[in-house]
């Protein structure tokens, strides 16, 4: 790979020019809005100190994460000094560099363009950090803008008068020799021997993210679903990666965030289960990696700067799904629940008496091989569609799922049932503070206005304390944990049922 020679600053120093590029970079994107880039760069080194400039890097590179080494381990290569430049030349940057100075502006006129003198009061320059707001990095974006006097329109003084906005095309004086066209790493390298070297460069960068999307399609009547899952890769890092080997890491990897508050053997799926990457797009493989899961796109792909790319990940047919309804009627005061102790909650007579009427629609899916899945599912958005009688797909709800290992079950809330209604009210409250006991009774009404049978799961929170006993119940119930119980009620079309229960608390 040819290199353009720069000025030599040290004895026995050689520089690789800004045109140095890497072949077939490897990019691993994490679902926590960062990526690791690895690539091979060709260096022609002399023994001793070498001055190197490399500009095939990202805008959001973390400079202290850079690693440069001989991958064979046969040659010692030491970075004596590294400087990260991220101020590429642009009209905005030159306006910023000339703030307070008078320059010429080419101003269009009907007959002949006119050149006028204007003083740059404010440049309005904002650096290339606009995408940071997409990754929770507004704090650094704000600091960068204020540090460089950015924000707002340019302010120009012409003939003693102030105007906002550019009066024409600015004509700048020649720039200095240290200006750059791209973000650049400048190295002083110490090599123990002379000769060419295929060095491995690796670094962490922000501005890249990925997420999974699961599209479930149900037929008109059946409960089985067809699934097509995609991964969406968003590249806002300021660099295009040509023919990159792309990997996606799923899991919650610990990554430190600055105190400013900004962020930053393959698996072959069984034929009867979910298939990774079938039916168009680059095929994907999956494997456990450390405590996480790594998905690899099996053929090179190009990630263009400011591009959003979709790649098919999973395709499965005949996935069984259970749809059920939940009535969780109590509206609880979260502040009291988190900050009051047991004795205070016992004495709050009105606590837990507020209620809602909505009945939730839930989907439950087992991620098992027998259910034609059985692959690790990274966290992402689930969308549900159902075919109408005319064959068209209609959207029926969406939500998020967490990372779901194989052989686990996930449940998704998809909306509120139109034709199911719940009503909850307290019918009795007795508190004996001296005896440290409370008795409370409730009445729950359910109405089914559908034209078919419906099972509604009533969820009741025993929210006043851990020491409780159900003293009366009109329906059987299941104890779900130390403070939750559940009734499962079958309702015929048009039927209404009333469930009552009483609870005795002690403390």
Description of the molecule:
The chain contains four helices and 31 strands. The protein has 507 residues and is mainly β. The protein has helices spanning 91-97, 138-147, 334-339, 342-347, and strands at residues 22-30, 34-45, 48-54, 67-69, 77-85, 102-107, 114-122, 155-158, 161-164, 169-171, 184-191, 195-206, 208-218, 224-235, 241-250, 275-276, 284-289, 292-297, 301-303, 307-327, 360-367, 380-387, 393-401, 408-416, 420-432, 437-448, 454-461, 468-473, 478-481, 484-491, 496-506. Strands 13, 14, 16, 20, 21, 22, 23, 24, 27, 29 and 30 form an eleven-stranded mixed sheet that branches. Among the domains are: 45-87 and 180-204; 91-171, no CATH class; 320-377 and 403-506, no CATH class. The radius of gyration is 32 Å and the shape is elongated.
Helix content range of the residues, please? under 10%
- Main sheet specs: 11 strands, mixed
What overall form do the CA principal axes indicate?
elongated
* Structural class by secondary-structure content: mainly beta
Kindly estimate the percentage of residues that lie in beta strands according to DSSP.
over 45%
Instruction: Report the end-to-end length measured between terminal Cα atoms.
Output: 78 Å
């Amino acid at each position: 790979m040819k290199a353009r020679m720069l000025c030599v600053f040290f004895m026995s120093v050689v520089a690789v020019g800004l045109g140095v590029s890497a072949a077939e970079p490897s990019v691993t994107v994490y679902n926590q809005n960062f990526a690791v880039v690895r690539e091979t760069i060709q260096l022609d080194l002399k023994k001793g100190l070498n001055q190197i400039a490399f500009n095939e890097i990202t805008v959001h590179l973390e400079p202290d994460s850079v690693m440069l080494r001989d991958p064979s381990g046969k040659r010692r290569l030491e970075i004596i000094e590294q400087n990260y430049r991220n101020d590429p030349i642009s009209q905005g940057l030159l306006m910023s560099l000339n703030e307070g100075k008078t320059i010429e502006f080419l101003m269009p006129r009907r007959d002949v363009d006119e050149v006028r003198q204007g003083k740059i009061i404010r440049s309005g320059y904002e650096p290339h950090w606009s995408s940071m707001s997409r990754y929770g990095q507004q704090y650094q974006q704000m600091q960068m803008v204020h540090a460089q006097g950015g924000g707002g329109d340019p302010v120009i003084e012409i003939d003693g008068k102030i105007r906002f906005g550019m009066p024409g095309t600015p004509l700048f004086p020649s720039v200095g020799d240290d200006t750059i066209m791209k973000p650049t790493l400048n190295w002083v390298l110490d090599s123990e021997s002379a000769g060419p070297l295929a060095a491995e460069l690796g670094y962490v960068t922000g501005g890249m993210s990925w997420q999974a999307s699961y599209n479930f399609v149900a037929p008109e009547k059946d409960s089985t679903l067809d699934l097509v899952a995609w991964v969406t890769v968003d590249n806002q890092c300021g660099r295009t990666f040509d023919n990159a080997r792309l990997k996606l890491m799923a899991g919650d990897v610990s990554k430190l965030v600055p105190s400013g508050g900004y962020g930053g053997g393959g698996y072959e799926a069984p034929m009867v289960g979910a298939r990774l990457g079938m039916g168009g797009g680059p095929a994907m493989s999956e494997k456990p990696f450390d405590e996480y899961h790594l998905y690899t796109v099996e053929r090179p792909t190009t990630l263009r700067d400011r591009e959003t790319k979709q790649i098919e990940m999973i395709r499965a047919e005949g996935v069984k799904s259970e749809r059920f309804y939940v009535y969780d009627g109590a509206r609880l005061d979260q502040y009291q629940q988190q900050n009051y102790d047991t004795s205070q909650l016992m004495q709050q007579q009105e606590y837990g008496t507020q209620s809602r009427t909505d009945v939730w629609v839930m989907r439950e899916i087992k991620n098992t091989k027998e259910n034609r899945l059985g692959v690790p599912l990274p966290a992402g958005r689930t969308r549900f569609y159902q075919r109408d009688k005319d064959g068209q797909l209609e959207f029926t709800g969406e939500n998020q799922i967490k990372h779901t290992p194989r052989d686990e079950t996930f449940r998704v809330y998809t909306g509120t049932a139109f034709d199911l209604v719940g009503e909850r009210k307290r019918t009795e409250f007795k508190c004996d503070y001296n005896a440290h006991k409370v008795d409370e009774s409730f009445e729950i009404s359910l109405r089914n206005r559908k034209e078919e049978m419906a099972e509604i799961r009533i969820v009741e929170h025993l929210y006043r304390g851990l020491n409780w006993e159900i003293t009366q119940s009109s329906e059987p119930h299941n104890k779900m944990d130390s403070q939750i119980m559940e009734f499962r009620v079958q309702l015929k079309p048009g039927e209404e049922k009333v469930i009552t229960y009483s609870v005795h608390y002690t403390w």
